[in-house]
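TODO from last week: model Enoyl-CoA hydratase domain-containing protein 3, mitochondrial.
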Amino acid sequence: MSQAFGHQLLLRFRRPALFSLSSSSSKFCPLFRAAAFATDGAATKQQQQSTATAAQHQQHVQKVEQQQQQPSTTRTEWHLGNRVARLVMDDKRVNSLSLSAMEMLHDTLRELDARPEVRVVILAASGPAYSGGHHLPELTAESGTEMHQKVFNKCLELMTFIRQMQLPVIAEVDGLVAAAGTQLVAACDIVIASGRASFNVAGVKLGLFCATPAVPLSRNVPPKIALDMLLTGRFLEANIAHKFGLVSRLVGTAELRRETLGAAQHICDNSRAVVGMGKAFFYAQLEQNERDAYRQATATMCDNLKWRDAQEGISAFFTRPKRQPQWTHTDQKVIKD
């Protein structure tokens, strides 16, 4: 089912012929009519083609701009005492990552990351597709290079911001994930998926190699698995994605939301500041060799021990009867530098 749906997804924006031509009447005698059409007619065809192409381009640009002006259909649900924001993508275009959708998602994530009461973001979706990737009409020749640059610049900003956020982002996946949708999932910190999830990076089937999705994908799964997906366009089913590390937890469809909120609850039980610091350290040390990573880890732990929340957690552990730590959720220090 998922492969058939994915094939339809990739072909749904097949373009019609740009124009059709019919020969015009000629006042020349029949003997010269063919020659006249070969010269004057050629010029007429060229003019018609130019006019038709310009009109087609203008119509296409206007259509894309109108789609971008449509309000975002991503809604925010609040859970666990408004500490968990569950963003649900609900787009008629199979939750496509259009320029406007990425702008709205980026703005929402920035706003949530700046709110001290928020602890976790869950990124979910409705419908049979988690995300079908980029909005293909924005990637056609008619849209132009400037539009293409805008789309991929915003995609870069969105994906890198997810990694830079203090808040953990959990992808809650139930359905098909394609191309830039797989990139979005791979950029999240934790991925919890149902058995109905499947992932591809099938741009190669459209003549467009999924270069940007390859970046986080190759940092989540072994190179041979990533290249198999990138070069063949085949789907990676949920159980295989879980086996090779793209999916953190694999659960039944009925348990998906409960499992995701359960993970969010466990994160909420911890200090917001410590979680944010830990996330930043984790991604930073991935770029280092082992010795440098250990050096940074040592400095990080020694600095963390100066924090009030660290000393509060240790104190609560030794208190009898044992008590829950009372976090400040800040990096306030009790040991001076």
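Done. The domain at 272-318 is CATH 1.10.12.10 (Lyase 2-enoyl-coa Hydratase; Chain  A, domain 2).
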